Amino acid sequence: MNEDPIRLVTIGRMFRRRRRLLTVLTLVGALAGYGTSVLFPPRYTASASVLLPGQWEQRELLTQVEIATSSAVIDRTAAVLGWKGVGGAELRDRVSAKAADGNIITISGTAESPERSQQLADRVAQQLVAFAERIAGRGTDSEETTGPEVLRQQVEETNRRITDLAEAADPGQTVESVQARTALEKLRTTLAEAMKKLDEADPATNKAGLVVMGPATRPTGQAPPTRTQLIGAGALLFLLLSVIGHLTAARMNRRLRTEPEIATALGSAPLGSVDVPAERPAHRPQGRDPRAWIRRLLDLDTRWDVPTPRTSGDEDSRRIRYQRVCARLKDRAPGTRRLLVVVPDGDDIARRAAARLVTEAGNDPSPASPGGEHPVLRVVEVPVSRPLLPDRDTESGALVVLSAGSWTAAELAGIAGACADGGYEVVGSVVAGAVRTARPARPADRPADKAPALAAHGHATGESE
């Protein structure tokens, strides 16, 4: 597992090297959001306001909100609307209410068209007002008359009877008649006071009736989530999942990066590292395999988690690295005339480094040195999935050349096993890394057309050393 911390430069490198893949996945997410919007038809929401005059406490407002979304109001609304296939249970999921400032209850209705959403909000508001009037005893239905109203009617009838009794009493000034009229007036006063206390105790009489503050406004736009929001959410979701997937894969990367780890996996001694100038592939093989074509199109055959190549020195410094590797190889296998250079198939950096090693070994400047001349190298590319080397001929050993951060320990162990199976002893390993070459500075007093000739002359001089 790679323990390197994830930095912003890593994410930026991912977007730069995998921009085609990330773009395609983002478009796929947008198409998924569009498909979701097709499956779920658009919805429209309209709102109607109901005013509650008088003094209302917060808990009383919350009670009215619950009443607005109760089955007593919603079922009556469904009966009044008469929409086919839509009952109270379906409308209950489409209606919501909330208490706003100023004793106002906002009722919202959601439907598949602006006209239906406006109609639903208006009907729910009207049914809420009608239900509140029935509770307060101001309804028009005779069977819905409440107990306090019946009591008031009986008190009025009693007052009329008292008046009749007072008029039928002896109009004289006898003591009995005066006492009778006084008792009747006391009874009338007592009844009036009782009704007054009853009215004060009834909360429905202390507040005026609910009022609908005009019809609901017909909506002009869809209720969220809209089609545009679903498309954007799908694209963003797929992009985030792609980034997380890339970072997780990089975090779980088990490819070996350092020379000691690579040498341990191969069971050989490290002979050093060499630099290969980074360059774009000139021509990629145009195979007929559609999977290979898709990988090239989406840049899947390009490693994104490899750091940007560092800047290398001049050509002489790179040649010195190759010569040192050849010298160590000569010391490691003295008297060996031929070696097989094993390169993993598909490792372009290692292939170029191996070709440079063959060139440097063939240009041994001192064949008469005490250690002898460099061994003759022959490059062989082996597939990592099923490595297989040719039978041993004149080569007495194998030199493995590979790039850092490209292969796992199991893959390198397979290459080492293929070497042992072919009868080759792994005499060492060389790690190749891509570098950026620094452009030579052009002298200000030199003509531009002579610069290439001078550069070529310097390169030739270096090779003659």
Mean pLDDT: 80
Helical content (DSSP H or I, runs of 4+): 40-55%
**H/E series:** HHEHHHEEHHHHEHHEHEHEHEEHEH
Derived from helix and strand composition plus strand pairing, the structural class reads alpha/beta
Strand content: 5-15%
Shape: rod-shaped
Count of individual helical segments:
16
First and last CA, distance: 45 Å
How can the largest sheet be summarized? 6 strands, parallel
Summed up, the domain count is 3
What is the number of beta strands?
10
Q: Provide the gyration radius in Å.
A: 47 Å
Give the low-confidence spans: 141-145, 367-371, 444-465
What do these coordinates show?
Its main location: membrane. The chain crosses the membrane at residues 230-249. It holds the Pfam family Wzz. Residues 271-290, 438-465 are annotated as: Disordered. Residues 277-290 have a biased composition (Basic and acidic residues). The protein is an alpha/beta fold. It has three domains: 8-40 and 225-251, no CATH class; 43-221, Bacterial polysaccharide co-polymerase-like (2-Layer Sandwich), CATH 3.30.1890; 259-464, no CATH class. 51% of the residues lie in helices and 15% in strands. It is built from 16 helices and ten strands. The protein has helices at 8-17, 19-39, 58-68, 71-81, 88-92, 114-136, 147-168, 175-201, 203-206, 227-251, 259-266, 290-297, 315-332, 348-362, 409-421, 451-464, and strands at residues 44-51, 95-100, 104-111, 211-212, 270-277, 310-312, 338-344, 376-382, 397-403, 425-437. The strands form two sheets. Strands 5, 6, 7, 8, 9 and 10 form a six-stranded parallel sheet that branches. The chain has a four-stranded antiparallel sheet with strand order 2-3-1-4. A hairpin with a 3-residue loop joins strand 2 and strand 3. The longest helix is centred in the middle third of the chain and has 27 residues, at 175-201. It is rod-shaped and about 160 Å long. It starts with 7 loop residues before the first helix and ends with a helix. Residues 141-145, 367-371 and 444-465 have low confidence and may be disordered.
